Each structure stands twice: as C-alpha cells, then as structure tokens.
Amino acid sequence: MKLEERERIEGTDITIGRRVYYKDGEPAPSPCWAAEYRDGTGKQVCVNLGTESKLEAKRSALALHAKIEDGRPHVADARLGLE
Description:
This protein has one helix at 54-69; strands spanning 3-8, 15-23, 26-38, 44-48. A hairpin with a 6-residue loop joins strand 1 (3-8) and strand 2. By secondary structure, it is an alpha+beta fold. The N and C termini lie far apart (35 Å). The chain has a 4-stranded antiparallel beta sheet with strand order 1-2-3-4, covered by helices on one side.
C-alpha cells in the first residue's frame, strides 16, 4: 500500500506513514497513521494505528515491534457477530 510521509522506526523493520487513497482520481491521504512491515514469511503487512498523532504512532509502532519480537503476530479482528 502506498504511504505518504513515510518514516522508518529506528531499530525496527517497521515503517509508519499515512495511507493514500484515491477519490475521483485524486490522491487523498488518510488522517490516521499506519504501520507497514514484513512478517516471518516475507508477506507485507499494513496495520492501521488508529491515531492522528505522529508521536503516538511511533509509540504504537514500537509496541507492535515488541509484540512481534515476543512471537505474538498481529491478528486482524474478524468482526463477526453471531446472535
């Protein structure tokens, strides 16, 4: 995924940036920050950090790195609702 305002988090393989979407052919960057990295199989993973603050995005990326290093991979929410 294309990221704008990319920045590599020092000491990690994680890059943070703002996702770029296209609306009517024009680029429209997201206000929220996202993190991008490669998992153990080499597959590219992009995770929404859910914050508009760059400082908070860096903190979240470091927490994500610690989680990956501990062997707890990021798992997306299924968003299934059964009654």
